[in-house]
Amino acid sequence: MSGVATNRETLLGCLSVRRWADDVLAGQPYADREALLAAADTAARELTDEELDQALAAHPRIGERGGAQSQREQSGVDPAAGDTAGRLAAGNAAYEQRFGRVFLIRAAGRDAEEILGELDRRLRNDDRAERAETVDNLRQIALLRLEATL
């Protein structure tokens, strides 16, 4: 049995953090896809501040379509519907002013109202709680993206 493996480019397309990719690559080959995903999950749980900044630099704001992956993930968000674009822009601006970084959420499977509700809720977080939620959402996104490549 040859096992399951991936490559650096694929991993960095899932989560743009070199240490994370190196940690996942170091365990190859994995017995199966579940083992690969478990290793990726573990490696994504503890991002440094620098790694968090690296990862966020690769993500567009919610409502602003980036590359193909982001467009698929944000497919439930139609910025042209009603006042969605204005509400997203205002929420993104408030978040960036409050926390000094782009608002990030696993958008896959969520519609605009759910995302806006989460944005409003997370604006009430303290810095520590919000950092933890951001890291967790990055982890969720990375795992969804990695799973889609397997």
Automatic annotation (TrEMBL):
Q: Which Pfam families match?
A: OHCU_decarbox
Coiled-coil annotated residue ranges, if any: none
Q: Which stretches does the entry tag as region Disordered?
A: 57-85
* Pathway the protein contributes to: Purine metabolism; urate degradation; (S)-allantoin from urate: step 3/3
Question: What is this enzyme's EC?
Answer: 4.1.1.97
Top-level enzyme category = lyase
What's a single GO BP term from this record?
A: purine nucleobase metabolic process
GO MF term list? 2-oxo-4-hydroxy-4-carboxy-5-ureidoimidazoline decarboxylase activity
Catalysis performed (reactions): 5-hydroxy-2-oxo-4-ureido-2,5-dihydro-1H-imidazole-5-carboxylate + H(+) = (S)-allantoin + CO2
SUPFAM superfamilies attached to this UniProt entry: UraD-Like
Entry keywords, A to Z: Decarboxylase, Lyase, Purine metabolism
The Oxo-4-hydroxy-4-carboxy-5-ureidoimidazoline decarboxylase domain, residue ranges: 8-147
Is Zinc one of the keywords?
no
Return the Gene3D superfamilies for the record. Answer: Oxo-4-hydroxy-4-carboxy-5-ureidoimidazoline decarboxylase (1.10.3330.10)
Q: Which PANTHER family match?
A: 2-OXO-4-HYDROXY-4-CARBOXY-5-UREIDOIMIDAZOLINE DECARBOXYLASE-RELATED
Know the name of this protein?
2-oxo-4-hydroxy-4-carboxy-5-ureidoimidazoline decarboxylase
